[in-house]
Amino acid sequence: MAKLSHGELLIQLTNLQTKIQSHLNRSLSLYGIGFTEYLVLRSLRHAPAHKMRRIDLAQAIGLSASGVTRVLNPMEKIGLVEKDHVERDARVRLVALTETGTKIFEEANTSFNQVAESLLTPINPDKQKSLAKLVNALL
pTM of the full predicted structure? Predict the structure, then answer.
C-alpha cells in the first residue's frame, strides 16, 4: 500500500466530514433544523440556565460572532431561541433556549444519536476508542 500524503489524508477527512454532515442534515431536517442549528440547541441545552453569551456560543460551535448571529436570527424567528439581557450589564446579550427549542432539541437528539450509531456501528468498540484518541489528538 502506497504511503498516503498529508494532503490526501486531509481530503479523505474532509470527505468523511461531508458524508457525516449530509446524513445528519437529512435526519435533522425532519425537525426544521440542520447540523449547525442542532449544535446551537445542544450547547444551550447544556449551558447553565440554558443561556449563553453569543460570543461563547460562537466559540462552542466553531463560528465567528457574525456567523452565529446569522444562524440565530432565523432560529429566533421560529421560536427556538430568544434574546435575553443581563440585569447587571445592559451591554451583555444572552441567547436563551426556549421551551420550543428544548422540545425540538430533545426530538432531534434522538435522531442524531440514531445516525451516529448507524455510522459508527461498523467499527468495533476498540477501534472506536482508538479513533476517538486520534481525533482528540488533532483537536
Answer: 0.87
DSSP assignment of 48-106 equals GGGEEEHHHHHHHHT--HHHHHHHHHHHHHTTSEEEEEETTEEEEEEEEE-HHHHHHHH
Burial 77-88 (b: 16+ CB within 10 A, else e): eeebbbeeeeee
- 10-residue mean pLDDT profile of the chain (139 residues): values are 86 94 94 96 97 95 94 96 75 88 97 94 93 90
Q: What does each C-alpha distance from 73 to 66, 95, 117, 127 come to in angstroms?
A: 11, 11, 31, 40
Extract the C-alpha cell encoding 14.
474532509
**94: CB partners within 8 A, 6+ apart:** 51, 52, 53, 54, 83, 84, 85, 86
